Amino acid sequence: MSQTLLSPEDLEAALRNVGAERYHNKHRFHARQYSGKCSFEEIQAWALNRYYYQSMIPIKDAIVLTRFTDAEDRRQWRKRIEDHDGLKPGDGGIERWLKLTDSLGFPRDYVESTAGILPATRFAVDAYVTLVRDRSPLEAVASSLTELFSPNIIGERMSGMLANYDYVSKDTLAYFSYRPTQAKRDADWALDYVKSHATTVEQQQAVINALKFKCNVLWAQLDALWSAYVDHYLPPDAWVPGTIAAPRSKAA
């Protein structure tokens, strides 16, 4: 661990370097996905498993919200919950993700049950929720800074999938259309918060480690997908391709 207190600018550089080294845009599953090499069943498995992560984000954010003592911090953070849950039924990021799984043939009740997700998906996401519950609010905020790196992966994913898979469309990928603007707003606020509140060597190392942990959470989910659906080592109770979901259909 570094024994030197970083300036706010150097701390930001250290955090950005975490993303440069560890963000899951470097994972082989992401490359396979946006280059058009995934099978339909691999895309189904990705969307099904990613739903668990999406569904737990507002729960994670609600936990963080309860840990802020400053009202303005709470006002800023609760926008994240509104983005995912929506302000009314049929709105929000989770609903848009369900439209994607709808388009891939999954019944909603099956997706929402999370019955078919991979054990490693559940473990990774639950570990993230545990971190924001049990570690400091500062570390919880820092763990969200993967949003600094998300616009690039979203751009690659959308352009690659639209170009290579005839069963997706801008409408079925609408979740990703909203995220760059939301993520930039949230990441800008979180970065300012971390830079102003991490004022000791120990705190700075803690926020760097929290961001590394979050990168590991995202990476582990893609590791699990590769093992189960590319290498075909399906764990017990995982969704089996060809079951539950309807056959492939071309996007409108």
Automatic annotation (TrEMBL):
<dbReference type="InterPro" id="IPR011845">
    <property type="entry name" value="PqqC"/>
</dbReference>
<protein>
    <recommendedName>
        <fullName>Pyrroloquinoline-quinone synthase</fullName>
        <ecNumber>1.3.3.11</ecNumber>
    </recommendedName>
</protein>
<comment type="similarity">
    <text>Belongs to the PqqC family.</text>
</comment>
<comment type="function">
    <text>Ring cyclization and eight-electron oxidation of 3a-(2-amino-2-carboxyethyl)-4,5-dioxo-4,5,6,7,8,9-hexahydroquinoline-7,9-dicarboxylic-acid to PQQ.</text>
</comment>
<keyword id="KW-0560">Oxidoreductase</keyword>
<dbReference type="InterPro" id="IPR039068">
    <property type="entry name" value="PqqC-like"/>
</dbReference>
<keyword id="KW-0884">PQQ biosynthesis</keyword>
<comment type="pathway">
    <text>Cofactor biosynthesis; pyrroloquinoline quinone biosynthesis.</text>
</comment>
<dbReference type="Pfam" id="PF03070">
    <property type="entry name" value="TENA_THI-4"/>
</dbReference>
<dbReference type="InterPro" id="IPR016084">
    <property type="entry name" value="Haem_Oase-like_multi-hlx"/>
</dbReference>
<dbReference type="GO" id="GO:0018189">
    <property type="term" value="P:pyrroloquinoline quinone biosynthetic process"/>
</dbReference>
<dbReference type="GO" id="GO:0033732">
    <property type="term" value="F:pyrroloquinoline-quinone synthase activity"/>
</dbReference>
<dbReference type="InterPro" id="IPR004305">
    <property type="entry name" value="Thiaminase-2/PQQC"/>
</dbReference>
<feature type="domain" description="Thiaminase-2/PQQC">
    <location>
        <begin position="14"/>
        <end position="223"/>
    </location>
</feature>
